[in-house]
Write a structure and sequence with these properties.
Layout lengths: L15 E4 L2 E4 L11 H17 L4 H14 L4 E2 L3 E3 L2 E7 L7 E6 L19 E5 H4 L7 E7 L5 E7 L7 E6 L5 E2 L6 E7 L5 E7 L5 E8 L6 E6 L6 E6 L5 E7 L4 E7 L8 E2 L9 E6 L2 E6 L7 E6 L9 E4 L5 E8 L3 E8 L2 E10 L3 E2 L3 E2 L8 E4 L9 E7 L6 E6 L5 E6 L11 E9 L5 E9 L10 E5 L16 H4 L4 E5 L9 H5 L7 H16 L8 E6 L1 H12 L6 E5 L5 H5 L7 H8 L6 H8 L14 E7 L8 H13 L9 E6 L10 H18 L5
Parallel strand pairs: 35-36, 35-37, 37-38, 38-39, 39-40
Antiparallel strand pairs: 1-2, 3-5, 4-5, 5-6, 6-7, 8-9, 9-10, 10-11, 12-13, 13-14, 14-15, 16-17, 17-18, 18-19, 20-21, 21-22, 22-23, 24-25, 25-26, 26-27, 26-28, 29-30, 30-31, 31-32, 33-34, 34-36
Helix pairs in contact: 2-12, 6-7
């Protein structure tokens, strides 16, 4: 019998914290400081242990990687979109890790450019080659990509560590010269003034909160001037340019409250004007379009309504209702064009797009819903940079239909398919079936499940299955297509998405009933969905795996503590498993803003007790747990690597599982952030390893 590798044993060093009369010793807190050699040594030892315990998966992992690669059209072209006098697109080349962003003048190509055999259309001007940018780097991510209004300059920002703090670069699109204006440590979002004389950007504070907007002068002194600062630590900041390019837009928001400020792009030295002062509990979003503001807000209905206001509006008293709030209909957003509106909605757990004509005399006319001919699907507006347009780009996909880009004729509603994601190797959607199931939660709430399987898989109680979940921040996990998922389906694995409370699938109330003092509904909903998969016969009771990442990783940890016996294996990606420690420390990134999602355990003893009762790190039990793979990135700013590192250490010392059959593994990418590796082939290998781990545990490797 082969002797098992010995797992790393983290040292236990006393670390006391006291809150609300409780003193807690957290002996693994020393793992937080990545500047210490002993911390890096421990993570490397964990990586070596994971590699040793999964060595037998090398062939399977390589097979899955080959499947992903062989099903992907590696030399490809996105749908070119016209903006001004240029067609903009990105393309990939077989063998290259990153996309190439480019454009072609409309004068050189009056019709939309098409993919050619070598991938480079005639008359192409390369704006940004990610492969060239990545030379000599182990990690590369772009935070912003903005062409000036006169189309002569490109401003973009790069991150080469994974910490999501960016450096701004400028490219002269006439000469090709790239310069770094010394703007570092910035957040997401760049915006040009109309004449290209100034570039606006955001800075982040020590807690990684975007809190300032700065103006950089390009053609004169080169000075940077602070133009706005948000001092309320609860508020997150975004910076953008309106679709009609007439205004710079600052969006400020907490989980409950928002405020927007706008400034004419023609007046870069002016002051941003408040559209409507923040009111606690009122959320709104603004779309600038000509002389109008289109506003989605929740002032009168929790599922929001659409309003219209004059461009000069300065308060909500100026808002005129257009679509009133309705129970069962969640208004998510609006895209405004010269002749039409595209309103994004949610009804019955599914997304929808409603197109409404605009009339200068009568306002908003009767519209139509963009049709989708599937039971389960996701529809969203696509890349629509032009304000004055006769077509609307939408993107439609499902669990069986690859991502499909359409043009909608705004006047007639007719759809034209522009591109469907190629899936090579003879993929046929008819070989698979998708279903909507409903689980019944402990309190009687019906919870939707989206399920896909190969059509020859029968609900006879024998199939392996994988249940994915998230359930936080009102984020909806809609049915989507995945090439990598085919490696599960073609091995007979049933794949399901649990649309649990805390997400936004069923409207604002769905979110509110899965946050703060209702957070446990998220976890019990997921367990109910697991029970439904088994009870309906779709999945064998001993062959169900689970997966989730970030806040979905917290879900994984909480569910393991609630019902470890229901799962054979779990993948927890960048998991928020030490949530109580994080939310107790306002000096950490994101914490203060997170108090409106989870509560403030620092000040409120009842919140402390509630979080203490469900957070994964505090509630591990001395019983058998499933096999666990935790993955993280050393430079992750959103969920620090220390959370899964501590969690794995405590799991190993507490649970009674046989490590030969149900190992507990930690894999840390030593140069990566929250999203893992960025090169597409590297990312595919990472995914292939994770898929292989779960397939092996489910007995579905063949």
């Amino acid at each position: 019998m082969t002797e098992l590798p010995t797992p790393p044993v983290a040292a236990k060093i006393e670390h006391l914290r006291e809150h609300h009369g409780e003193t807690v010793n957290d002996p693994y807190e020393w793992l937080r400081d990545k500047s210490k050699p002993e911390v890096i040594a421990h993570l490397e030892a964990e990586n070596a242990y994971t590699e040793a315990m999964t060595g037998h998966l090398a062939e399977l992992s390589e097979a899955v990687f080959t499947e992903i690669k062989s099903r992907t059209q590696q030399t490809d072209l996105s749908v070119p979109v016209r903006h001004g006098q240029w067609w903009y697109y990105s393309r990939t080349v077989e063998g290259q890790q990153y996309a190439i962003h480019a454009r072609i003048a409309v004068a050189d190509s009056p019709e939309r450019p098409e993919l050619v055999s070598d991938g480079a259309p005639q008359h192409e001007q390369v704006l940004l080659d990610g492969n060239a940018e990545a030379e000599g780097e182990s990690f590369l991510s772009f935070g912003a990509f903005e062409v000036s209004h006169d189309a002569t300059r490109l401003a973009y920002s790069v991150d080469t560590t994974g910490d999501e703090r960016f450096t701004v670069r400028l490219k002269d699109l006439t000469t090709g010269e790239v310069t770094e204006p010394g703007i570092e440590g910035v957040g997401y979002g760049l915006a040009w003034s109309a004449d290209g004389s100034h570039l606006f950007y955001t800075r982040v504070d020590d807690a990684w909160r975007p809190f300032q907007v700065w103006r950089h002068e390009l053609d004169g002194s080169g000075e940077d001037t602070l133009v706005f600062q948000e001092d309320d630590e609860r508020f997150w900041m975004g910076l953008d340019t309106s679709r009609d390019e007439t205004h710079l837009v600052i969006g400020l928001g907490t989980k409950n409250t928002s405020e927007y400020r706008i400034l004419s792009t023609a007046d870069p030295l002016g002051e941003f004007r408040v559209v409507s002062p923040r009111e606690e509990g009122v959320e709104y979003a603004v779309e600038v379009a000509g002389e109008d503001l289109w506003i989605v807000h929740n002032k009168n209905h929790r599922d929001s309504e659409l309003a219209r206001a004059p461009l000069g509006a300065t308060s909500s008293a100026d808002w005129t209702p257009v679509i009133p709030g309705q129970d069962g209909q969640r208004i998510v957003g609006v895209d405004a064009f010269a002749s039409h509106l595209a309103v994004s909605l949610r009804r019955d757990g599914l997304s929808q797009v409603l197109v409404l004509p605009l009339d200068s005399d009568s306002g908003v006319g009767e519209g139509y819903q963009v049709p989708v001919e599937e039971v389960l699907y996701n529809i969203d507006t696509g890349n629509n940079p032009a304000h004055d347009t006769a077509t609307l780009q939408v993107v439609i996909e499902s669990l069986v239909t690859p991502r499909s880009v359409y043009d909608v004729d705004l006047a007639s509603g007719a759809l034209t398919l522009l591109k469907r994601q190629p899936v090579l190797g003879g993929y046929d959607p008819a070989d698979y079936v998708q279903h909507r199931l409903w689980a019944t939660a402990a309190d009687g709430t019906r919870v939707p499940i989206s399920l896909v399987a190969r059509k020859d898989v029968q609900p006879d109680g024998t199939a392996p299955g994988l249940l994915y979940g998230y359930g936080s921040y009102e984020i909806s996990i809609d049915p989507y297509f995945s090439v990598a998922r085919l490696s599960y389906l073609d091995r007979g694995v049933v794949y399901a998405i649990a649309h649990i409370r805390g997400g936004g699938e069923m409207g604002r109330g769905w979110y509110e009933n899965g946050r703060m003092e209702h957070k446990k509904n998220t976890f019990t909903d997921f367990v109910a969905c697991a029970d439904e998969l088994v009870g309906s016969g779709w999945v064998a009771p001993d062959r169900l795996a689970a997966a989730g990442g970030s806040a979905g990783g917290l879900l994984m940890g909480a569910v393991l503590n609630l019902a470890p016996e229901k799962f054979r294996a779990v993948h927890a990606a960048v998991p928020f498993v030490d949530a109580l420690t994080t939310i107790l420390d306002p000096s950490l990134p994101l914490t203060v803003g997170e108090w409106e999602e989870w509560g403030n355990p620092l000040e409120d003893a009842s919140v402390y007790e509630y979080m203490r009762s469900y957070t994964p790190y505090e509630n591990i039990r001395a019983v058998d747990y499933p096999a666990i793979l935790a993955t993280t990135g050393l430079n992750d700013t959103r969920v620090f690597f220390v959370e899964p590192a501590k969690w794995v250490a405590r799991l190993r010392e507490t649970v009674t599982s046989n490590p030969a059959e149900r190992p507990i593994l930690l894999k840390t990418e030593m140069v990566a952030g929250h999203g893992g590796k960025t090169g597409r082939y590297d990312a595919w290998r990472e995914t292939a390893f994770e898929v292989a781990f779960l397939l092996d545990q489910l007995g579905a490797a063949g």
